[in-house]
Amino acid sequence: MYALLLKAMFLLPPERIHHLAFAAMKLAARFAPTRWLLAKLLVVDDPILRSTVFGVDFPAPVGLAAGFDKNAEGADTWGPLGFGYAEIGTVTAQAQPGNPAPRLFRLPADRALINRMGFNNHGAAAAADHLARRAPGGIPIGANIGKTKVVEAADAASDYAISAKLLGPLADFVVVNVSSPNTPGLRDLQAVESLRPLLRAVLDSVEVPVLVKIAPDLSDEDIDAVADLAVELGLAGIVATNTTIRRDGLRTAADEVESLGAGGLSGPPVAERSLEVLRRLYARVGDRVVLISVGGIETADQAWERVLAGASLLQGFTGFIYGGPFWTRRIHRGLAARLREHGYANLAQAVGAGHTAPRS
Questions:
Q1: Apex CA 330: angle with CA 267 and CA 30, to 5°?
Q2: 234-256 per-position pLDDT tens digit
Q3: Is the preceding peptide bond at 241 cis, omega within 30 degrees of 0?
Q4: Measured CA distances, 55 to 127, 157, 287 (Å)
Q5: Active-site residue among 51, 163, 179, 180?
Q6: What would the pLDDT profile of 274-305 be if each residue is shown by its tens digit?
Q7: Sign of the CA dihedral 122, 124, 130, 131?
Q8: What is the pTM of this model?
Q9: Which strand (E) or helix (H) includes residue 293?
Q10: By CB neighbour count within 10 A (0-12 exposed, 13-18 middle, 19+ buried), where does 270 fall?
Q11: Burial grade of 358 (CB within 10 A; 0-12, 13-18, 19 or more)
């Protein structure tokens, strides 16, 4: 049924259907009867999936990745839809329109998306207002923060700190996004000499756990450097990875892909590199830093592979788009079955269990 619905939805422009689908989800989760029905159908409430990560209790490991709920308008929506947590944003200190449309594209043959949204959002104050009105007892919410486009790189630390101060008290954790390819110069902030003062500014601004989100396009040496910096500064975790600017190995015709222009590619094409980065990070930091894996996760087998490779938590966006409303349920039920099959009492016991590479 969802395959047929997806075909119908794909007749509309991607950004338009995103807004319509998001509005429908928020509406369904707003009223008690439909919220109860959604949770009954989609939530996997299994003790074996629960974990406490950087001091926060997560009912299940699969979360909504940043980019879907840019302004925290659906903070109470994602729990009934089966997610164990959600990351809102990316939010910037100042409101900004993002890049000109069209800026979101589908690659159905690859079950992938290309976006060059450009951190379109209503600003940190607006997101904070939405978070302040969250219903009690919901799933954990992380705030993903980025640099305002008009702010110079030299002033990035103070710009991030503004968002952190506004959102930190209202979120369960904060993720510093320095890895989107759609804000000019942003990825340059992943260099350790630029990243260190920026992360220190955010750490000094909040009391909740702070994580950093990195790109799959970093060199292995740069990944090691970010991992070492995370340990040095006492970061709670690393989110790996964001979208990629690479276009190799796609089923979609090269001329069609080229016609879509620049942007970050998400979905199955980034899965292999995302897993490589995860394994490298775990080899470098082990359990000293929490690792959240995102990028191309579509099935329970892939999710299980990420857990064994060192991921304490998982995220998805494109997998949810193509997989439909039962996507989280399938993955959570599959993970629970694999945990029991292999004799684990809980998810935490399996994290990194398949990792054999020596640690640096």
A1: 90
A2: 999 999 999 999 999 999 999 99
A3: yes
A4: 23, 26, 14
A5: 180
A6: 999 999 999 999 999 999 999 999 999 999 99
A7: positive
A8: 0.96
A9: strand 290-294
A10: buried
A11: exposed
Tokens at residue 159, please? 């710009």
Q: Which residues contact 15 (CB under 8 A, 6 or more apart)?
A: 101, 102, 103, 104
CB atoms within 10 A of CB 57: 12
Strand-pair partners of 351: none
| Alpha-helix runs per DSSP H in the chain | 2-9, 14-30, 32-42, 124-132, 156-167, 192-203, 220-233, 254-260, 271-285, 300-309, 318-323, 327-341, 347-350
Residue 105 is encoded by which pair of tokens?
Answer: 């594209």
Query: What value does the mean pLDDT of the chain take?
Result: 96
Exposure b/e, 285-315, CB count within 10 A at least 16 = b? beeebbbbbbbbbbebebbbbbbbbbbbbbb
180 is catalytic: yes
For residue 39, what are its two tokens? 């949770």
Coil vs helix vs strand at 92: coil
| Structure token pair of residue 194 | 């630029």
Task: For residue 201, count other CB atoms closer than 10 A to its CB.
Answer: 18
Report pLDDT for 358.
Answer: 42
C-alpha angle 138-62-229 in degrees, rounded to nearest 5 = 100
Give the CA angle between residues 43, 48, 53 to the nearest 5°.
Answer: 90
Q: How far is 279 from 104, CA to CA, in rounded Å?
A: 30
Q: Is 146 exposed, middle or buried (0-12, 13-18, 19+ CB in 10 A)?
A: buried
Distance CA 269, CA 246 (A): 9
